[in-house]
Amino acid sequence: MSESVVSLYESLVEAEPPRSPSVLFDTACVMGGSIAGLLAARVLADRARNVVIIEPDEIPAEADTRSGVPQDQQVHTLLPAGHLWVERWIPGVTQEAQKRGASLCGPDKSLTAFNGIPQASDGGDHHLLAIGRPLLEALIRARVTALPNVSVLRARATGLRYSDGAVDAVRFVESGTGDQGKRTEKVLDADFVVDAMGRSSRLSSWLKQDGYDEPRLERLEAPINYATALFERPAKFADLESAAVLQLFTPQFPSGGVSVAAANAIEGQQWLVMLMGYGDNRPGTTVDEFRAVSAKLPAIFSEATSGAVTRGVVAYHQAESRRRLFTEASRLPARLVSMGDAVASFNPIYGQGMSSAALHASCLASYFGSGIDLDVAATEFFRLQQVVVDAAWGVSAAGDASRLDAETGATVPEEVQQQRWAMEQIVGATLVDGDITRAFNNVSYMLRHPGTLADPALLERAVAANEGVATK
After folding, report:
1. Do 452 and 304 share a domain, yes or no?
2. Is the same domain home to 165 and 191?
3. Residues 172 and 110 in one domain
4. DSSP 317-341
5. What totals of helices (H) and strands (E) does the chain contain, helices first?
6. What is the model's pLDDT at position 75?
7. Which of 28, 234, 275, 357 has the greatest CB tally within 10 Å of its CB?
């Protein structure tokens, strides 16, 4: 792994708002008002006189679900890298979240375990924010849209307009009552456009239709089934032994078909509990089934599901992970980028979605600060973003592929077998060696690039630690 890639990734994690930003645009437009779009708008607010977010969903008055975010009722945790970035660019969000009942979980309140065995303490001081996705989005939205130059237009983007090889406007149809198909298409002039339309983004088809390259879509089959429910939590945060629990199970572990389970102490004095199965394994669809499966897991899950139900079981299915490879496209219009799930969406259990969106925004800030030519395609932005996408893909997609191959008995190339063996050694050693736990967690938390785990000395230490356990 190139040291320059590792260093570049970590510089994106540490990026701060510009001290004296120069205004580059009159009007910038963000298509999509979810977390990725809001964070893009925050970056653009430093660079444009006006930032318009085009969002088709009606914005709820409170922290409520939106139809455009089908996974928002599932477990969400803001990893340390995302938490650091968001707090750096939108100061005070964490404090507001805690006032609303979210849990800021340091090492003393966080637990990650494999087959019921906890990781060794890494001695660090990183924090996870355990919070319901609707609340976090509402808090970020309130802060970003309160900026004097940011506004929201309730509408659906329908296409782009170009001039001299650059995007110069967004076509849209306003949302509201009535037959949307009969409404007049309007145009918003824009000097820069961000696609944050999520996993179902239509940008690629627009580009192909308009004579530009359609970014190649890479897919990885990873059929995952979530079941998530909310339960009353009588204990206060300070009294909890753990407030953010993540348990991962191998196919051989007797877990009732559950591959991953999580329990987060979130707002409203609630436990948010999630059970996830691969393939044909579908966690319970009723509360009774949900509790029965939880009873087969470590005790924290029986405890967390014992309270009164505050929201019944909500299921979510995702068939694959996917990423669009903009770096391979040789002909793209200038003044256009894509961010968040519109570029890459992974198995949500790894918790990388919101933090990836934050780091994509960091890429945008770095791109604007690098003295680039805005009248050519944003190749430099996509190069920076690819570093983040590859890092997240290497963790989540590789983990899913390994599990599915193990369950199906698929033939795996020797090189891939060696890579997986090395990762298994490192993961196994996190149960007994705090230094290895720290190296592994820094990557899982998106603070450091996965290339840092390729250190031969680290692997040698992991093997020795595992052999020491095996001989006891």
Report:
1. no
2. yes
3. no
4. EEEEEEEEEGGG-S---BSEEE-GG
5. 13, 18
6. 66
7. 275
Sheet containing 344-345: which strands, arranged edge to edge? 117-118, 110-114, 244-248, 260-266, 270-278, 216-232, 309-325, 344-345
Query: What is the tally of structural domains in the chain?
Result: 3
Range of the domain at 343: 8-64+137-219+322-394
Strand partners, 105: 128
Torsion of CA 130, 95, 237, 243, to 10 degrees: 20
Among 366, 394, 422, give the residue marking a domain's end: 394
Burial class (CB in 10 A: 0-12, 13-18, 19+), 194: buried
The answer to whether 52 touches 28, Cβ cutoff 8 Å, is yes
Chain position carrying tokens 């669009």: 324
pTM for the whole thing? 0.92
The reply to whether 15 and 142 lie within a common domain is yes
What pLDDT is recorded for position 301? 94
CATH number of the structural domain spanning residue 118: 3.30.9.10
Residue 429 sits in the same domain as residue 309: no
**305 and 332 fall within a common domain:** no
Residues 229 and 290 occupy one common structural domain: yes
- What is the rounded distance in angstroms from the CA atom of residue 18 to the CA atom of residue 123? 32
Written as six digits, the tokens of 423 are 């990762």
DSSP 214: P
pLDDT at 409: 65
Question: Hunting for tokens 């709820």 — which residue is that?
Answer: 60
Nearest to 422 by CA among 454, 376, 469, 374: 454
Residues 211 and 276 both lie in one domain: no
Are the C-beta atoms of 289 and 315 separated by less than 8 Å?
no
Name the CA radius of gyration of the chain, rounded. Answer: 22
Binned average pLDDT, 10 residues per bin, the chain of 472 residues: 80 91 96 95 98 88 54 71 93 94 93 92 90 90 96 96 97 75 86 95 96 93 86 94 88 77 92 88 88 92 95 85 92 97 80 86 95 94 95 76 65 76 90 95 92 92 86 60
> Are 325 and 218 in contact, with CB atoms under 8 Å apart?
yes
